[in-house]
Amino acid sequence: MFTGIVEEMGTVAHIVSMQEQANQITITCRTVLEGTRIGDSIAVNGTCLTVTALTADSFTVGLSPETLRRTNLGRLHVGDPVNLERALAFGGRMGGHYVQGHVDGVGEIVAIVPEGDSERVTIRPPAALLPYIVEKGYIAVDGVSLTVAEMGRETFTVALVAYTQSAVIMGRQPVGALVNIEVDIIAKYVERLLEAYRQEAR
Fold first, then answer.
1. Which long-range contacts does 66-73 make (Cβ < 8 Å, 24+ apart)?
2. pLDDT digits (tens, 9 = 90+) for 134-144
3. Rounded distance between C-alpha atoms, residue 73 and residue 83, angstroms
4. C-alpha pair distances (Å), 179 with each of 111, 140, 197
5. To 5 degrees, how large is the angle CA 107–CA 112–CA 118?
6. 81-133 pLDDT, tens digit each
7. pLDDT at 93
8. Percent residues over pLDDT 70 in the chain
9. Cβ contacts of 199 within 8 Å, gap of 6 or more
């Protein structure tokens, strides 16, 4: 479980890819290595991954074919920045919202509009995710806990304050960039419960 509060931006240092069978990414960083052990979970662009190797300044994670299908991680290149967050520690502060690190799909940034020192970023998610996204609700974009500022017919918009622009990769991404999206888990649980209720009512 994560909070969507990015601890630091790391840098992709090495990628191993063998026909989607033995994919690995090594990421250089500093903060998230503190207290991390092999087997721990780290969210990389909002994707919960297991640490398989550690050095003094990097960690390595494996990518399954399912992860490559569901996320933007298969499009990373050496030198790319990534958002990093360690799993929530028991008793830690809950600054964002409950983020599982289970990416629901990949969306596309379709507009970036400056507003003073902030930015409004409009994203087109997969159509199947739109029912789970509501104005003023939570959403995780590349692992960042954000509030939906506005809904369109096929898009949603979030606002990035100046600090967020400098602390996460979205502040560096152009129109057309692909981003990982995880909708609020509560919406999916409610839908499932209603499905069960409707089936019992038949």
1. 68/20, 68/23, 70/103, 70/104, 70/105, 70/106, 71/45, 71/46, 71/47, 71/103, 71/106, 71/180, 72/45, 72/106, 72/142, 72/178, 72/179, 72/180, 73/25, 73/44, 73/45, 73/47, 73/180
2. 999 999 999 99
3. 11
4. 13, 10, 34
5. 120
6. 999 999 987 766 666 678 899 999 999 999 999 999 999 999 999 999 999 99
7. 64
8. 94
9. none
Give yes or no for a contact between 80 and 26, defined as CB atoms under 8 angstroms apart.
Answer: no
Cα–Cα distance between 186 and 120 in angstroms, integer?
A: 25
Whether the CB-CB separation of 84 and 43 falls below 8 Å is answered with yes
C-alpha 182/C-alpha 149 separation (Å) is: 16
- Asked if 50 contacts 20 with a C-beta cutoff of 8 angstroms, the reply is no
**Residues in a beta bridge with 71:** none
Task: Look at the alpha carbons of 6, 7, 8, 11 in this order and tell me if their dihedral is positive or negative.
Answer: negative
What's the pTM value of the predicted model, to 2 decimals? Answer: 0.89
The answer for 127, left when phi > 0, alpha when psi is -120 to 50, beta otherwise, is: alpha
